[in-house]
Specification:
Blueprint (H helix, E strand, L loop, with lengths): L4 H5 L2 H26 L6 H41 L3 H4 L22 E6 L3 H12 L5 E7 L3 E3 L4 H5 L9 E3 H7 L2 E5 L4 E3 L4 E3 L6 E2 L2 E4 L4 E2 L7 H4 L1 E2 L3 H20 L4 E6 L3 H18 L6 E6 L11 H14 L1 E4 L4 E5 L2 E4 L4 E3 L2 E4 L3 E2 L2 H5 L10 E3 L11 E3 L4 E3 L8 H4 L3 H12 L15 E4 L5 E5 L2 E5 H19 L17 H9 L13 H8 L17 E4 L5 E10 L5 H18 L3 E11 L4 H21 L3 E9 L4 E10 L15 E4 L5 H9 L5 H11 L4 H9 L4 E4 L4 H9 L5 E3 L10 H6 L7 H4 L6 E2 L2 H4 L2 H4 L10 E5 L4 H10 L6 E6 L9 E3 L1
Parallel strand pairs: 1-2, 1-9, 2-5, 9-21, 11-18, 12-13, 12-18, 13-14, 20-22, 28-29, 33-37, 34-37
Antiparallel strand pairs: 3-4, 6-7, 7-8, 10-19, 15-16, 16-17, 23-24, 24-25, 26-27, 27-30, 28-30, 31-35, 31-36, 32-35, 33-36
Length: about 850
Amino acid sequence: MPVSRSKVWTSPTWSALMVTKLKVDASLSSCHCAWAENAAGSSTEQAISRKRDVGILVSRWFGRCARFQRRQRYCKALRRASARSPGFRKQGTIPAFHERGAAEPMKAAEPLVKHLVLIGGGHSHLAVLRGLGMRPVPGLMVTLISREILVPYSGAMPAFIAGRYQPEDMFIDLRPLARFGGARLIQADIDSIDLEARSIVLPRRPELSFDMLSLNIGSIPDTSGMPGALEHTVGVKPIDGFLAAWEEIREQAVRGLQQGEGYKLAIVGGGPASVELACAARARILRDSGATDAELSINIISAADEVLSSHNQQVRDWVREELQRKGIEMLTGQHVTGFAANTVHCEEGGEIKADSIVVATGATLPEWPVKAGLATTADGFLEVNRHLQSTSHEFVFVAGDAATIRGMERPKSGVYAVRHGKPLARNLLRYATGRRLVRFTPQRHALAMLNLGDGRALASRNRLFFRGRWVWRLKHWIDQRFLRKYRDLPQMRQELTIARGLVDRREERELRRHALRCGGCGAKVAGSILQEVLETFPATAGIVDKGVEDAALVPTPAGHELWQTVDQLKAFIDDPWMFARIATLHCLGDIHAMGAQPDSALAIVGVPFANRSITRGLMRELMLGCTMTLTEEGCRLLGGHSSETEELQFGLSVNGHAEPGKTLRKQGMQQGDVLILSKPLGTGALLAADMRYQAGQVWMERALREMLASNRGAAAILAEHEASACTDVTGFGLAGHLLEMIVSGPVKLYQGDVPALDGALECLESGVFSSLHADNKLTERDIDGSDKLRESARYEILFDPQTAGGLLAAVPETRAKSCLAALHEAGLEKAAIIGQVGDAADGPARIVLV
């Protein structure tokens, strides 16, 4: 296809290429002349051959330049497309190109058509989640189910036991990683799997349907043939269970040594885990107790003739001498037959006494994967092919210790299991999209590194053997590099598409700062905007106007009052069941705040565009969470409305009833009343941090627990203690809701006593705010306080929007202490007195920070 001259020469690269071509042509001409002059020494055919060879080389060179130019044009087109359609790289698709000035077509919603469920938080699934975050698959819904959210890295456990690592040096938080990978996160055990129906049974939850399944569940010690193991021993796996037991063992050992009673620790198993555990436990116990080797007895009990039988002889000899030097006794050739209290039973009637017994023998699997009907190997593990695909069910993939590749058996060790991550991630996505799977060949030998607990380590591979402090430093570097890979995640791009010139730079920066919109109550329309819109509406006939109250009052013929309220939230966590429970409590908050009893509700549900199976599963999880919570609150679900939305949404229209004159109102505070807040603040900041992968499991677990606490009990306690006014603290923050309560006169607010959720102040100090925070802060014009008070994070938390927040009430000063004690006794541990109502004569209606 011909190209116009103007288009060719407007490209700098093409200009350079054309100049180069002219130079090459001139060079060929001069070569031809030279060959003609030397024709007497060379035949014409030789000259033509040389010219042809040079021409071929030049043509190839020029062809490479042309291909380079085409790549340059392609990359430039991609950059232009990226500018017009932010986020296209994330989705792995290239939007259609349009002429300059042409309008972009409306982006269609991406339907969810396939459901991938990951069971277990093992190392391989970490790689899958990170890969999904880097290259998402539109239309694929991913769910991660894990018993624990803080998962330990097994390679760092000996250093943690020895006291060289802190918890943050060995644990990986699945919550930010799942958020980064776009996966729903469910913390639960597995009851069973129905492979025929492709569903998973979870305790107290609806069945979870799936199209594809991946298992990365690790292993547990094999104690078959050892009666009494469950009752009298501690297994090294699962690691999280062992670490909890280890703290108790350490405390008992330290106490026994300090009291001069001595301590005996028996470790059953002769592999690397036993050696590392013995060395690490010895170092930690002796350091914490200040005792000597003579007072601490550690035995390694092994059925083999030597410990570390899988290592070379040089390693075995050196380790034997090292353990003897440390005073660790090796009882080899001892076949354990069972356990009793503080006793290890061996063959031929032998007994070994110990204060604590740890089992680090060969591995096996939990029962539920085998009962599901998956193919297994002779040693009881799940059999997979070289694609890490179950040999009995092609839609099931298995990785880590649980998997044994048919014909390629390898030791059950983290060194081998961690290699499954990349091929598993590739094959899961290839299977989901119908592409050919890639084969995985496990390595035959691996570099084994053992921590000796004293700042040294040894490394071996085949016949190679190294030891010393430099080996420990190398192991430390390898371990921490692995952990950083799944902790230091790329920050979410805050996309904002605005035509140049519509806003100035300052406004664009502010909009870009809040381009990542919050869920929960932080997703509400700003209060100032809402007020402006509502003022334009005519009064509704037949409804008694109650001003700023949270619900509309409708008189009933029976003489009781009917209170109605409505609320709806955008999903802020990726667990629909948990989200529905919290959203239900949030929607009931207005009724509870008024001291009324919820009676009935209508659901408002929005689910993303998906196929029938996924939509049905989402609806089932939402409605089970809702109805379970409503039943606990004594409320009925009458029906509802559902629709397709871009993101998961849930809300309720709630009816409540109360006797006339028995409800609590916002504007009834009396002079001298004490302000009590029933729950801590900070959900808005924590949810915003969670969206940015900056809120860990410890913070989020506490926040979710507070959000799941009903306000029903607190409302009853406040009414019992003669509260004069009450409201629930939700989207407009503590300051906004408190200002609604003030009729006249100032109210003192004890800023330092305002309770905060763990991590909330840290988030605010680092500049992580909810998207509604800035609008809530417009109320600070009605707040008096020194500059010092205004510069702290405790000031910012006054404007933090709350989801399923607590109750704010004014209680007579004489009843305040007993009211607070009753709230604490009811389980609201962070309820606090945060202020006091002043005299109207002291000034206008304002908040005064103290």
